[in-house]
């Protein structure tokens, strides 16, 4: 069987860890079943950067190979183009986007360099699968070096419509680069439609009835493959001793109060201040919850050397401080905000001990926390998921209480509905959600895209 080679900016860790980030979690789950090579950035900065030695590690099934970045590459490629230009645009935040020609040049230079290093690791029958917005031009760079292997791509974040995306300088070139791949996977059908619209309206391409998109003489498959979690595995985590210890600690700390949980990297796309204001509105509109319901927000710091992230951290501290000062009483603090991270087992216990999972991003490619919250619940007494309509997960999880995160009145009302929901309705909704998550788990996600990739590549060779 051909080897799978996964490429992404973040690589691993392969063991249960406290690392936050949907991409790493999704890929660990997908790779641990089928094995393969995982190539990307080591997470370190050194003088030699991409020219430095290859760092390798292996477990029974998965091998990792990573290289460093130098400071200029980190600033231009990762902090600059990926996270100051692309991330805000792809999350509908043009107000936060910074466009600098040098960022884009360094981004392309780093992509070329990763392609060169990757090429030396490739075997002729490898299937290559590239991930996320850090590596959009990597496929083109590989093709320019005569790599003929099947190469697929998956975008973990949203793909906005052409009216929006064209605000990005050189967006045509970037989308054109995607046509070097054989298959492009998106989180939702909406993202696929936006991509097709861009190809047709901006690039003069056309869309086939079979889902193929043709432009610049290349026909590729563009399709939705919603990323899943290892549902069974995560449900098992919730039953481990570590999970139970954390759940019990939580129960003791709550002293009979009801808990709402939020778990997100500290990112402006996650709608955290809006979420806290919605909780404040709940306490205003339904005073019976004062002293009885609290919100725990776990928000590990992310990309904290970037101004926009520093700002959102300060805002979160200020909003939670304000609400706590306004409502706190002896023996009850409305909001517990923490920047620390937990192991996956500990998180599973915390989810299980929480009556409501509050997942209200302003924009999110998928949102795995929503899925983990459901997977960790006790089937006999499950909690309720309140989920933003702007998370990709909402497309697959209609049995959650779907909310508009910009409308605090509405979110407060839905939290109230969740708090009042009968056991029968909670079970009914949870059963439907869990069934979907079990069918569309991380293994299914990886298998579907890889199967399409092999088939599309064979068809391209035959044409
Ligand atoms: P994103 O990819 O934008 O970070 P997701 O919700 O898709 O968003 O994925 C986040 C992942 O990071 C989840 O698997 C979640 O469990 C994990 N995570 C988030 N916060 C923490 C934390 N404090 N400790 C450990 N893992 C975390
Ligand atoms: O899923 C979105 C994502 O950007 C991943 O690509 C990334 O690994 C994760 O969030 C965490 O961000 P970072 O890698 O910048 O720490």
TrEMBL record:
Gene Ontology terms describing biological process: trehalose biosynthetic process
Residue ranges that the Swiss-Prot or TrEMBL entry lists as coiled coil: none
Transmembrane segments: none
Molecular function as annotated in GO: alpha,alpha-trehalose-phosphate synthase (UDP-forming) activity
SUPFAM superfamilies attached to this UniProt entry: UDP-Glycosyltransferase/glycogen phosphorylase
Family matches, as Pfam families: Glyco_transf_20
InterPro entries in the cross-refs: Glyco_trans_20
Family note: Belongs to the glycosyltransferase 20 family.
PANTHER family: BCDNA.GH08860, TREHALOSE-6-PHOSPHATE SYNTHASE
This protein's name: Trehalose 6-phosphate synthase
Species of provenance: Breoghania corrubedonensis
